[in-house]
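Quick one: structure tokens for this chain, please?
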Amino acid sequence: MIQDDFNQQLLTFLDCSPTPFHATKTMLELCVDQGYEVLQERDSWSLKPGGRYVVTRNQSSIIVFTLPEKANPVETGFRMAGAHTDSPCLKVKAKPDLKGNGFMRLGIEVYGGAILSTWFDRDLSIAGRVSYRDVAGSIKHALVDFKRAIGTVPNLAIHLNREVNNGVAINAQTQLPIILLQQPEDDKQDFNALLLQQMSEQGVTDVAEILEHECLAYDTQAAAVIGFNGDFIASARLDNLLSCFIGLRALLDAPQTIPKLLVCNDHEEVGSLSASGAQGPFLQSVLKRIAGGEEAYQQMMAASMMISCDNAHGIHPNYASYHDNNHAPLLNAGPVIKLNANQRYASNSESSAWFKLACQQADVEVQSFIMRSDLACGSTIGPITSAELGVRTVDVGVPQFAMHSVRELAGSRDAHHLYQVLKCFNALPDID
């Protein structure tokens, strides 16, 4: 797949995936279009050589795997890639309605480590999952997406906040509620009424009562290739939907020679400790069902390897002093191996060597990132997955700017570079 076509598909995926629920749905549909069989966790599985399968949990995490006819996964292990479907954002509260001063606003919680200042003065929409009782009395779930800009969080004028450019603290409770509309004092319309209206427009007409919702705000500005020479991709949720898309396309497009698996977990940005997060049992449960027994599972993990894909910090020319000069990745200069002495990343010399071999086979340059020794390091699903499964793991990613901003920036050539490497990794011979 050539770079321009790849990037256009990436942009479409980003725009179609405003929440983990929508990202998982989009990935599931791509797999079904390629002939993958959908598994349900509550069913008995009858896995066959040559089979290609996909399973989801909580509608927000997904595992895709293949079982080539001439490869026994217990002997060869899996070539696995992992990413996460969630991104820092503003989450609508369960009872969000705030009325007064002639406006209807939505109260929010901050999900993950969002850069809050970037959420001001943006054209915001709302999307997520609604759980409801239907007219027959059953509980159902529906995804909603208003798609158009229905709200905003306006900044306070500088005349009323003269210190705004000196770094003023943001109060999420009082300063981040989303303004939706002007509302007379006697108007009883609330957020549930807006959800009902949107669900009806989307064809969900059997709602008797909304029971609960998980809705997130998102910026409606479309993902785009930008820069004078088209050097950059700008979008919301590059961390980490970019890796989800790369991992899925690499799995779908790689030769069917060695068992492959992609896992994209929810809740990484808040610690991964959930039933659908990387510290939950989802991946291990699927792998044990594939292996068929505890000893076979342990053998399979010993022969497997995981690439944890999560974006890296590219060296920012306006803030170059925040980087270690010897480990400062450039945008559009190849994927990045992420290293940390305190195991915040899972990479070691063995797993890094295998990734470098895949880069050589793909004819793609590779870079390394280590945080300055006087700054704290972030983390990924890599150490969690490695510890849970006992699988050799390397943490890698595409370098980017503005991580956790409402609009992030990556190189327009890097996503395709990592895709090429993952395709080669998926076809590597046995890992001793």
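The radius of gyration is 22 Å.
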